[in-house]
From TrEMBL:
Protein name: CHAT domain-containing protein
Domain (CHAT): residue spans on this chain: 606-848
Coiled-coil segments on the chain, per record: none
Database matches in InterPro entries: CHAT_dom (IPR024983), TPR-like_helical_dom_sf (IPR011990), TPR_rpt (IPR019734)
Species the sequence originates in: Streptomyces olindensis
Gene3D superfamilies, alphabetized: Tetratricopeptide repeat domain
Record SMART domains: TPR
Length: 855
């Protein structure tokens, strides 16, 4: 019962002890309490009860009862870090028990071998136990043994064997009432899904397991460890670190298992390094190494040493000793048959390359490169990374580019199994090194055209195919409705000066639930989306339009000027300096949004000139007089490009990638699309442009006041030719897909737009911060505009800074006047800026808006 209904089992065991039981019954009761405390509570109390259980069994003179207790005690001792005592208890248990009882003891020793990382010994004990358990028709323990054997197979990389055992165990669990064991089986299936490369299924199954554990009221430390691993593969390292640290605090609070603490520390160390915190990674990994060593868990210790070496290398340390340490860990992991062995060889080769030890590097990289042809996607990616570094060391540009192409193809296939745009974007981080290697090789020997191809190869890839539409999930839809209601109430409370902590907590809970459900979506699009073609781009640009793609190599901006049938390259300034200058410009625009800040105008204009030098360099003089499309890297998404002197008076548009611009250019407007005008609440001007625009577009659908509710707005936006939305915008840097526009019934968020069959062909967002993005992955942007572009929107006008509501009105009216005359968004925005009054307030307002896409 302790794994069917843990709380009830604990209560019955305590009641039995209060009733003056016989030694045999007292032994069972103390053992149940010991199991409960071992797995769900205080390990010190567990050991006390299990020793009393053994003493009672000895008084009852029952060899099988004593053997069973010794097995439970052995597990507890190992979890307490007292490995030698634990294994000794098992030796006595195996000797004391007979037949069926011995099989149960062997199963639990196999579990301990797995905990210790002795996988061959674990498989041997399970092999001996399973036939006896089956012969005794012991369904529960047979299912446990099959589940354990599957878990060991996963640790050794044998995914197909694991799945066969999980399937057999699940069939047995369905015939029992063992709810905790069933939850554990779901959790294990999640791990198997992850090992086979299905991240969305893994997240869904782990969430389901957590719900089952929550109903039982039991802790989930092993699940925390496994979810950290999946979150890491999904590019969500900061969340994995937060989950591991929270679990460590909870485990320490209940005096839980030392073995689990070591594993959680390892999970935290693995997450801290890609989360940008190598020093935390070093601290967590070093402590994990000490704990694993003390627990005699050499398999785990080797994995922790690998993470420790990676963290030290990420912190800037490189030495011959580090190469030797990495090579030793690789050898140890290979002897265990651990799938992580190629990672260690790759690390040894990378450090050796940094020291100029080419012969040693080649030896280690050659070993790592063997993994490129088999295994799950991220293991093959490790192999192709090693192969690319080998080719680079050998001076083979062709070899570098081929290895990078093959590696990124593997990651493309993995990325497209992910349905959520956030996961697709974050997964690109794992290909950043390959993309940089290919760009560097292209710069050295391939000319500007090849550099453009590789700049595009791993830029804004999330926009190359529409995200999977969220399912018609009633729970998801009701969650979105509840989220809007709570967010609306919280906003109203803030405006009235009332406290909102409870509402904010509930809003965050609903956001987590919504996000969790969207991360479960599996991708449907085959392949990696459209392949970029330079010839097609140049043909579309013609002789008039120039596309300026900014690539960043080794911290310096490379300007690729595309048009008039050719691609030219110019070198500009340092990216870090440009980022700093862009922040100064943003601060200046915020000041200029308020009357009385005219003195800041010359300062902002001077910053614009410095930005032009840093970002365009000598290319600024080669732009001619025609339209220009700017393709910036993700880290420069907040630059107000119209402020740069050479771009200020021309037709200017911005695109996340050249490929994205091409798709927008080739997107046809809907033949019978309507016009939609939306006015949200709380604007200083009340959205004053909307009534006047309604007069210009007599057939337009106007949504305002109570009609501007999210369901109705989404219904009208779907397939519209032109949408104009005047509403307060809010950018969420912490969760960009919850960036929003305020409607009458609460916020409309990016997740809502992703439900559209086709987003509006053109959309104008006349509010603050709608063109702000979060830069994630290798070079991806998450935000409102980037959500619209792959869904059928060919052009967007949006704002990257706070603006003055009153000054926006004449800009918008002038913009629509140009559209009415047949101009594109970029042309109409250029003319609208020129039509504004010449004061600082209106100038800053014009600079803050950009046209995205090609419509």
């Amino acid at each position: 019962m302790v794994f069917a209904d843990p709380g009830e089992a604990l209560a019955r065991a305590r009641a039995l002890l209060d009733a003056d039981p016989s030694p045999l019954d007292a032994s069972v009761a103390h053992q149940v309490i010991g199991i409960w405390q071992r797995d769900f509570g205080d390990l010190r109390l567990a050991l006390s009860h299990l020793r009393r259980a053994r003493a009672c069994a000895a008084r009852a003179d029952s060899a099988d009862r004593e053997a069973d207790v010794l097995a439970t005690l052995g597990v507890a001792l190992v979890h307490a870090g007292r490995t030698r005592e634990g294994l000794a208890a098992f030796e006595r248990g195996v000797a004391r028990g007979g037949g069926h009882t011995r099989a149960r003891v062997l199963y639990r020793r196999a579990y301990v071998w797995w905990v210790l990382g002795h996988h061959r010994e674990a498989l041997e004990d399970v092999r001996r136990a399973v036939p006896v358990l089956r012969q005794a028709e012991d369904v529960i323990w047979t299912a446990r043994a099959l589940t354990l054997r599957a878990t060991v197979h996963l640790a050794l990389g044998a995914v197909e064997r694991a799945e066969a055992d999980f399937t057999a165990a699940e069939a047995l669990w369905d015939t029992t009432g063992q709810e905790h064991d069933k939850a554990d089986a779901v959790e294990s299936r999640g791990l198997a899904a992850f090992r086979s490369g299905d991240v969305p299924a893994a997240l869904r199954l782990l969430d389901e397991a957590e719900e089952r554990y929550a109903r039982l009221g039991t802790p989930t430390f092993m699940l925390n460890i496994r979810r950290c691993e999946v979150l890491m593969a999904a590019g969500l390292a900061p969340e994995a670190l937060a989950e591991a640290d929270a679990a460590i605090r909870k485990l320490d609070g209940i005096g839980g298992q030392s073995t689990r603490k070591a594993e959680l520390l390892l999970a935290a160390a693995r997450a801290a390094r890609p989360a940008g915190d190598p020093h935390t990674a070093i601290a967590r990994a070093a402590l994990a190494v000490r704990l694993f060593a003390g627990q005699r868990r050499t398999w785990w210790e080797a994995h922790a040493r690998l993470v420790l070496i990676e963290a030290r290398h990420a912190a800037g340390r490189g030495s011959g000793r580090l190469v030797a340490d990495a090579a030793a860990v690789a050898e140890k992991l290979a002897s265990f048959g651990a799938p992580a062995a190629p990672e260690a060889s790759l690390l040894a080769g990378r450090i050796a390359l940094g020291l100029g030890w080419t012969a040693d590097a080649e030896r280690h990289l050659a070993v790592a490169a063997r993994s490129r042809h088999s295994g799950p996607p991220l293991a093959r990616l490790t192999g192709w990374s090693a192969q690319a570094l080998r080719a680079q060391a050998a001076g083979s540009t062709r070899g570098v580019l081929e290895a990078c192409r093959r590696g990124l193809d593997v990651l493309d296939d993995h990325r497209m199994t992910l349905g959520a745009s956030e996961l697709r974007a974050r997964a690109t981080e794992q290909g950043a090194e390959l993309a940089a290697l290919a760009q560097r090789a292209s710069l050295v020997s391939g000319g500007p055209r090849r550099l453009l191809v590789w700049s595009e190869r791993w830029r804004a890839t999330v926009l190359s195919a529409p995200p999977t539409r969220p399912p018609a999930d009633p729970e998801l839809l009701s969650g979105m409705t509840a989220f809007r209601e709570i967010a609306s109430r919280a906003e109203a409370a803030r405006m009235e000066g009332r406290p909102v902590p409870a509402l904010e907590r509930e809003q965050r809970r609903l956001e987590r639930e919504i996000r969790s459900r969207t991360l479960h979506m599996r991708g449907e699009a085959p392949g990696g989306g459209d392949r970029f073609d330079v010839g097609r781009l140049l043909e579309r640009l013609g002789d008039e339009v120039l596309l300026v793609e900014l690539a960043v190599l080794d911290g310096r901006v490379q300007v690729l000027l595309c048009g008039q049938g050719r691609v030219r390259r110019f070198e500009a300034g340092l990216l870090a300096e440009a980022e700093t200058e862009a922040e100064h410009v943003q601060a200046g625009l915020r000041r200029l949004a308020h009357p009385g800040a005219e003195a800041r105008l010359p300062v902002v204009e001077a910053a614009g000139r410095r930005l032009e030098e840093l970002l365009l360099g000598p290319a600024a003089a080669r732009l001619g007089g025609g339209p220009v499309v700017i393709v910036p890297p993700g880290r420069l998404h907040r630059v107000p490009w119209a402020l740069l002197p050479s771009l200020r008076e021309r037709v200017l548009s911005v695109s996340p990638s050249a490929g994205s611009w091409l798709r927008a250019r080739e997107t046809a407007p809907p033949p019978d699309g309507c016009h939609v005008l939306v006015r949200g609440p709380g604007l200083a001007t009340g959205g004053a442009e909307v009534p006047e625009l309604a007069g210009r577009y007599p057939c337009a659908t106007v949504l305002e006041d109570d009609e501007a509710r999210v369901p109705r707005v989404l219904e009208e936006l779907d397939g519209a030719a032109l949408a104009h939305i005047a509403a307060h915008g809010a950018f969420r840097a912490d969760s960009p897909l919850f960036s929003s526009l305020r409607m009458a019934d609460g916020p409309i968020v990016v997740h809502d737009f992703e439900r559209l069959d086709r987003s509006p062909y053109r959309i104008i967002l006349s509010c603050c911060d709608t063109a702000r993005f979060a830069s994630v992955g290798a070079d991806e942007l998450l935000g409102l505009v980037t959500a619209l572009l792959p869904l059928g929107t060919a052009g967007v006008v949006a704002c990257s800074a706070p603006v003055n509501d009153a000054a926006v009105v004449p800009l918008m009216l002038a913009l629509h006047k140009g559209l009415g005359g047949g101009l594109s968004l970029a042309e109409a925005l250029r003319d609208a800026r020129a039509a504004l009054p010449g004061d600082a307030l209106h100038q800053a307002t014009g600079w803050a808006f950009s046209a995205f896409g090609a419509a």
